Amino acid sequence: MARQRVRLSVEERRRQLLELGLEVFGRSPYDAVSIDAIAAAAGVSQGLLFHYFAGKRDYYLEVLRFAAEQLLRETTRAREGTLAERLFLGLRAYFRFVEEHAPAYATLLRAGDDAAVAGVLDGTRGRFLETIRSELVKFQPRQRSAAARLRASLRGWIGLVEALSLDWIDHRDLDRDALVELATRAMAGLVPGAAEALSGTPLAPA
Amino acid sequence: MARQRVRLSVEERRRQLLELGLEVFGRSPYDAVSIDAIAAAAGVSQGLLFHYFAGKRDYYLEVLRFAAEQLLRETTRAREGTLAERLFLGLRAYFRFVEEHAPAYATLLRAGDDAAVAGVLDGTRGRFLETIRSELVKFQPRQRSAAARLRASLRGWIGLVEALSLDWIDHRDLDRDALVELATRAMAGLVPGAAEALSGTPLAPA
Q1: Among candidates A163, A165, A201, which has minimal Cα distance to A181?
Q2: 20 to 30 Å CA-CA from A119: which of A60, A129, A169, B110?
């Protein structure tokens, strides 16, 4: 591959390196990843790679941010259809992403005391929370504490989706649609006002 | 306090030191905890403290194990009553424990890439999972994948309870019974067969 040196614009090159990083960090733990091998696979020199990213750790964090953007985009792609349909497609995309990047996902969720990594994680969770909250806010009852309950419910629910993902990575004995169904049921339980809107989901009832 | 040197049996002394550690690590981050101060508060020499524990980190891990045992005992104390009542009391005890040990709880859940700490965490989650599974197994449908679904549901649900706890530590704008109610609703959603048994909960419906 090292010979196929192709002229790319700065943006294209950066994107190529991030995509490659997502693939490599998604397959191998951080310590096993060699920057030399990444540069070779991209057909660039290590020097050029460090022109784009200050070092291996900086590159890793940029790859995480790139992955988070991709995940957010893929899970919020569905703009039409009912709430149930959009949640279904969003969850499917989420669990597909977990499946495709299982080692990186598991490592990431267990790296909670690295402040920079925790920052990317919490930022991503916050954006998920806002996206879902904007959908569900109309279902919340008119009580003083309703906003706090919805926020807590969604933060809890994101924790559930992450734990379901880690369980799936460990066991792989359920199919993706079963995970989607469990997450949807939990949400219907947490936000009773939305239960009816969520029951139109394309999944068969239990 | 250092003068009140009291003769305790080995077991009593160990327990005293663990209780003190739980209090101190529950209040302050690990790096801020001084072993000198703990020995002084216990009225023992640092040498005696290191007779019981090999070092600060070993002491901390023993305190974590002690805390996990205490949490498991308190949340599973209710042996009588309906499933709904026992879940209610168990969740109340869980969130009370979170409230009493908030800084330690938050630090602990964010220390996921420390293998020894992760071991205590995962062991505790596993024991919660087994306890709850033994209660819920009779509600699972007779399908081939039912056991995997129940395990995944409970692992997801434990993730939800942890995320709810962290959200509560950050915001503290819901009371404990609101958290108990959200966790109960989510479980009823996840395990539809148990929903009726859980609806007898002492909490008012939404």
Answers
A1: A201
A2: A169
pLDDT-wise least confident of A94-98, A147-151, B13-17, B117-121: B117-121
* Rounded Cα distance, A106 and A90, in Å: 20
Contact by Cβ (8 Å): A171, B156: no
Three-state secondary-structure class, residue A154: helix
Say how far apart CA B107 and CA B120 lie, in whole Å: 13
CB distance from B173 to chain A under 8 Å?
Answer: yes
Flag if A118 and B112 touch (Cβ within 8 Å). Answer: no
* Per-residue pLDDT, A140: 81
Chain B residue numbers with beta carbons less than 8 Å from the beta carbon of A182 are 149, 152-153, 156, 190
Q: Is A183 helix (H, G, I), strand (E, B) or coil?
A: helix
What DSSP element (H or E) covers B176? helix B176-190
CA distance B82 to A154: 28
In this structure, is the dihedral angle defined by the CA atoms of residues B62, B65, B71 and B77, taken in order, positive or negative?
negative
What global pTM score does this model have?
Answer: 0.89
* Nearest CB neighbour to A156, from listed B151, B171, B186: B186
* Nearest CB to A156; choose among B113, B173, B182: B182
**Residues near A29 by Cβ (< 8 Å), separated by ≥ 6?**
A103, A107
